[in-house]
Amino acid sequence: MSADATIYALASAPGAAGVAVHRVSGPRAGELFARLCHREIPPPRQAVRVTLYDPASGEALDDGLALWFAAPHSFTGEDIVELQLHGGRASIAAALGALGRMDGYRLAEPGEFTKRAFIAGKLDLTAAEGLADLVAAETEAQRRQARRQLAGELGALYEGWRARLLSLLAYQEAAIDFVDEDLPPDMLADAAAQIAALIGDIDRHLADQRRGERLRGGISVVILGAPNAGKSSLLNALAQRDAAIVSSRAGTTRDVIDVHLDLGGWPVILTDTAGLRDADDEIESEGVRRARARAAEADVKLILFDGTAIPDSHTIDLVDENSIVLLSKTDLHTAAGGVAGQPALAISAKTGAGMPELLARLQAEVAQRMDLSGSPALTRQRHRNSLENCRDSLSVALTASAPELMAEELRQAAQWLGQITGKVGVEDVLDKIFRDFCIGK
Fold it and tell me: Which of 150, 220, 330, 334 is at 20 to 30 A from 125, Cα to Cα?
């Protein structure tokens, strides 16, 4: 990925649209106006009407608006031109073809605009990852989390911890360099107390039940119950479409079926599972095994009991504090009360009875687990790995018997924090981070 090249890409979604935005960034971006638009560079950040011409034949290809962002006051820190042209497929192809025929221009690689912004110091790695999450966000909660990260909240938290470490490191370096000076006798003990406090902050941050990571991928809600309890009907009712086959024949569902939902702004992966029973059939037995495996990993379990039958032993064993207990087929019975010490909500996927109450309860359960009002949550395994390594170095520093040993561990801990935000030693992870971006970002 050469920073000397001028790159271009379609920054808006591909396909027919009213407007297509083309982005150009690099040292030769300004040449676009003379060669493709036959005009001088306009004032920065001022939209001007332009006609786009083929650089070879001079044929008029399209017309629209152009904006000029002069370095360093742009997203990438380089000269940038944005073209707002017509969004038809042929118009897009013609514009990209014209840009591709410009000397020194090439098509951008995935994430290259944002990578250049990072290299220019316009944002740190956590903010870059937040931008990727914002582009990919499908629900309101995902948007809010990504926006906080893009705004720098997560990076500021880690850089604050790193600043504390560097301050401690400075004191230890002073103890090493000025050993003959009259330094405070309790300096080592004071440093140990500050290290212990920072370890506590990191441990509390890590003990988030992977809230941020789960919010990025979707909260797991699994429907569990005996055969013919109404699990597939409940899935279809919540999804508001026929996502699963519904049959009176027991054992129809033999594998897990996932449906992605937007539940009041929260991303939910709703899963239908095989009926829980002692199955003789090999395929159905595997379905039951997978159902129990999903139950063990679920954030919320919808435990469904047939209201017309006695609660079955296979299902009742799964009821715990992460469960919402349901009695199905309330159109056929008047059963009420609780199961396994928990209150049960009577519902009917056929008539809709109890469904508004279930949706409200489910949304409340998800919101409680994914609360976004506190400190920003770490959103990637990369963050978690570096924080765990940082904490391990700090734990070793606590046992140090000399300033030299403590300083070395503090230096290593600060480097682990710096790798999260991109302050130190991140060259080996840059391509991995940016390769999942869309081309125009």
Answer: 220
